[in-house]
Amino acid sequence: MTLKTLFKHRAGAALRRLWFFLTIFGPGLITASADNDAPGIATYSMAGSTYGYSFLWLLVAVTLGEVIVQEMAARMGAVTGKGTADLVRERFGVRVTTFAMLCLLLANLGTTVAQFAGIAAAAELFGISRYVAVPLAALLVGFVVLRGSYTHVEKVLLVLCLSALSYVVSAFILAPPWGEILRQAVTPSFQSDPQYILAVLATIGTTITPWGIVYMQASVADKGVELKDYRYTRLDVMAGATWGNVVSAFILICTAVTLYAHGMAVETAEQAAQALEPLAGAGAHYLFSTGLLGASLLAASVLPLSTTYAICEAFGWERGLDHRPREAPVFYGLYAAIIALSALVVLIPKIPLFPIMWLSQSLNAILLPVLLVLTLKLANDRRVMGEWTNGRVQNALAWGLTVMIGAITAALFVLPLTVAR
Amino acid sequence: MLYLSQLQGQKIWDAWSRPVGRCADILVGNLEQPFPTVVALALKDHGAPTRFIPAGQISELFPSIVLKVPKEDIETYTPVENELPLGARVMDRQIVDTEGRRVVRVNDLQFARLKDRFCLTGVDVGGRGLLRRLGVERPAVTIARLLRRCLPEHVIPWEDVAPLQHEDPLRLRISRDKISQLPPADIAAIMNDLDRRTGRALLTQLDDETLADALEESPPEVQVAALSQLSPERAADILEEMGPDEAADLLADLPAETSARLLELMEDEDAEDVQILLGYPEDSAGGIMTTEFAWVPVGLRAAEALDYLRRSPDAQDDEAMPYVYILDEEQHLHGMVSLRDLVMAPPDRSLEEEADDEPPTVEPLTPQEDVAYLVAKYDLLAVPVVDAEMGRMLGIVTVDDAIDIVLPTAWKKRLPRLY
Which segments of chain B belong to CATH 3.10.580.10? Predict the structure, then answer.
């Protein structure tokens, strides 16, 4: 073998390996950027501007939770080759499935409303009325997805999402007290005020989402990841979850420095955009709304479809875009209904867009334990997972997370009662 | 009608009306029959392990489950091979409806009494089954009646379903026989709708020809996924069975190393055809043509030509044969005659007289749009592809491949399944 052919061979192998990594790493990166979708940006901005760095420790804990939960979903996809809804139906029957799917629908409907709220907020920052932008966006999303040109559009939207990175740059320009930030990131704190609890739930619910579980499992199952390649997928999932939350942390830091420091708790998208002023000056609005728009459109394309697909999978209705609407009436009907309903909610006059964005995420967190419990039971079932059941540490952490979310939710409803007395 | 959901969890009473436990599952046998018989009932009594009561000791299933014998005389049935616990293995699973040609989910299972036995008769795949499982069938029916609607039952006879589970090779073989008889496009759609494991199990069970035909109808990702799950030898066999144009498209989608290895494993003749096609861009006439077409030598009469075609291996491979081409030894095209004209011509008529001696042709690098235009303009079913320099005929582009660019087949519009 001459040096030249050797080199060629090497280069080829390296390229192939890169391609292999990219194809396998795809789902993780997408989920990671979708972490910082409109409700995500809203939640972290709200949390950072209202509670400063004190939310950082929660973000660290939630990252660990997300890694565990997403890894579980990915493993179930790789081992069974089936979707979450499919497994839930086969293992738990109609009643449990119906309940789980109602929760999923409710959570995802809330999040889709939040995406359209993000679109509306971004449009208004650009000076376009939401009554123009939202119907247009709804039509665009429906058209793009049904035409099947989603894969092309996805790349454009992903590039728009990269503007979330401007938070990272901004943070370094702002030169915040890093020592203090690190200290807060490892020091747990808690307040028993309903507003604070809602914010905690929103932070959990926007990071670990029911749809994230379903999407992760479906994409791994569909990619046909072989179990011998599973370790790469695991790496990807862990890297993706961590990476997404690093960006989230920077959003939190930026808003804490620029807004919390001046006692300004964010209540509108316009205020949230101010966190980017150190970087972009007067252009901060545009930078912020570009990112918001890209992330919202991306999630608004993916979410309704993934929800519809899961529900139709659970009940055995015809699904998928290779069926015509007449063959799959429920699939297309439900899909259209989710988009139409979400867009309509946002068009209600004077509805506050920014609170919708983050409060929908509190709802997500409240509904999350339902899917978590089912996922945990499945991931520990030898008949389903064979040798690939959860480890002890993973089980302990995942159950811990589930119980914690349940306890926080209970606190949300119980605390106001005790205060009233 | 009696349904599994109404039996599961029901109390079982012995001959003296004493409770013995609850019904956990139903075991059926004689699966190759149109109506498999109930052979045993799984009994669950708290504390005790689940055991089977033979069907012979059951007196009634409805309105309540009553045994013919007192508690003390209950025998224990030992399941043999080829018996199916319905609750555990069929309920809530996906199965193939071979009449409707689609994948459906089992919402419930229907039983009937045939003489002295209970038989499995059908699979409920409709909304009524879901409502029954939710325990709201009756109120729903009442409400529907008030609205002057009726909720139709959607029960598929057991004969017309094919349960597919990768862990159950026997059922898979029976199902395979049913599914093999469906049109290739439907098999492709079914493979696409199944989860990966089950799809793979079905894949390995189908014979080469059925699988090749189904793959020709599948989107590229499915083709690639399917082929990568087979052994290289089997994959090469499948490629040989596929039309060279389809095989070339598929090989072009595989990593270079894999496709080179598969080409080596294929028989020389097939591999050569495919290799020629691989040399052309995908959206050119060369990229979409097939090298399998019917031809006859110059100077034959109609009857001789028909006779020649019957014995010609090339004609054998031509899937549709809309036209027959007249070629000389250098493979120069001398004319084209439609099969209709050839069949209707008097037996001793010279073929050249019957033929169109200057049919429209394209070159291998002609863009697909131009081919589509030509096909539409002259109402052709296929157009010959002729090498520009040597004037040799290389293959034909059939109308379905030509117009693909204008009217994309359904799958081209679909998303990757991950939404």
Answer: 295-412
Minimum distance, in Å, between the CA of residue A119 and any CA atom of chain B: 21
Residue in B102, B88, B238 with CA at minimum distance from that of residue B167: B88
Closest CA to B210 of B231, B245, B184, B178: B184
Question: How far apart are alpha carbons A160 and A298 in whole angstroms?
Answer: 9
Nearest CA in chain A to B124: A316
H/E run at residue A177: none
Cis preceding linkage at B63, omega within 30 = yes
Q: Pick from B320, B290, B327, B331: which is nearest to B305 by CA?
A: B327
Highest mean pLDDT among A336-345, B289-298, B348-357: A336-345
Task: Identify the pLDDT of residue A134.
Answer: 94
Closest residue in B to A30 (Cα) is B418
pLDDT of amino acid B179: 84
Taking only the tens place, the pLDDT of each residue in A301-316 is 888 988 999 999 999 8
Provide ipTM, 2 decimals: 0.79
pLDDT score of B325 more than 50 = yes
pLDDT at A68: 94
Instruction: Name every chain A residue with its beta carbon within 8 A of the beta carbon of B255.
Output: 16
Extract the tokens encoding A21.
Answer: 């990594």
Neighbours of B140 (CB within 10 A): 16
Q: What is the pLDDT of residues A41-78, one digit of tens each?
A: 999 999 999 998 999 999 999 999 999 999 999 999 99
Closest CA to A203 of A339, A329, A44, A53: A44
Tell me the pLDDT tens digit for each residue of B147-174: 888 888 889 888 888 877 666 666 677 7
CATH 2.30.30.240 domain range(s) in chain B: 1-158
**Which segments of chain B belong to CATH 1.25.60.10?**
164-279
CA quadruple A68, A73, A74, A79: dihedral, nearest 10: 120
Contacts of A85 in chain B (CB under 8 A): none
Assigned architecture for domain B164-279: Alpha Horseshoe (1.25)
Alpha helices in A1-55 (DSSP H): 3-35, 38-51
pLDDT at A338: 95
Q: B419 pLDDT exceeds 50?
A: no
Residue in chain A lying closest to B125 (CA): A316
Beta pairing, strands B333-338 & B51-54: unpaired
Closest CA to A190 of A365, A369, A35, A411: A411
Six token digits for residue B140 = 């729903």
Assigned CATH topology for domain B295-412: CBS-domain (3.10.580)
Q: Do A218 and B418 touch (CB under 8 A)?
A: yes
Dihedral sign for Cα B357, B358, B360, B365, please. positive
Bridge partner residues of B37 (DSSP): B29, B119
- Choices 2.30.30.240, 3.40.920.10, 3.40.50.11260, 2.130.10.10: CATH for B1-158: 2.30.30.240
